[in-house]
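User: Second chain of the day. Same drill as before.
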Amino acid sequence: GVAWQVATVVGAPLAASLGWAALLAVLQAGWYIAQPVAMRAASPLSAAGARAVPPLCALAVAGVGASAWPDAGAPLLLAAAAAGYAVGCLWLRGTAEGAEPPAMPGVAPAPAASTQRDSRSPTLRLAHTAVDAATGAALLLVWQRVHGAAEAGLLAVLLRLLGMVPVVVHTAWAQVLLARGQRWHTHPLWPGAAGAGLAGALGAACAAALSLGWLPGWQAALPYVLPVTLWQAAACVHAACSHLPFQAGRATGFSRAAIALAALQWVALCLPAIPAFSLTAAAHVWWLSIASAAGLLLWTAWILRACDASAGHRRSPGSGQET
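Assistant: Same format as last time:
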């Protein structure tokens, strides 16, 4: 599919298109393999870099290339993608070196009788994944249908930019603890609050750049910045606690809550279909963001309460020790 699209758009020979497709497939696979390797064998900062640095490198290559060669077109984008994937493959070096993962401050290995496990059935895992994918696709499709392609593009860009912060929190914190079977002695809301602050700072920077006219073609995105920032700040808090249900053996409830949140987001997306609601794009994004942020925070509160209860049940009366 990639080769045919390249050949159609660029007018390149089929052999060259197949070459690009093969190169991108190999490099992308290497990057995907490198990410779990980094979670197990690298520091938390390096694990976050394995997820965040390659897209930033691809963006930088595309930006610099577009400035130097404005007419480069699709080959430049393909080269930028290949460069980003290649940078991601650098984290595979940790496998060859076989280094022990560095210790995380304030973190101890999970006890021998750890309850960490994925208790979900294959059907529930599939349903969780399918609902997540369908919600992400429906978000942009519905937005384009209701508010137009330009508004959908603005929302997609902001979600991609600000959504990188909760992704980093999840990759550098929750996934690292799960991959290593470790528990943190301090409350997980601290890294969540740090991520929320970073998302707020990034949102404020975007709003300032738009207000000052530094991005002439993007002023229409200004009404989106605050609600999307609040949404992604709540996502950071949730991401910092997302490992707890798996460590407490409550993964089934985690996936059911995820499906419930997706249903809430679908309701918010479909509000313009109700005759009583005549929403502009700016008002609609507030409805969607408030629903998503409230759902994420309620979900986080459930996680903390349920996992605290599970930890209490595992302690013997009066001993203060896990049984």
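The beta strands are 107-109, 182-184.

User: Great, on to the next one.
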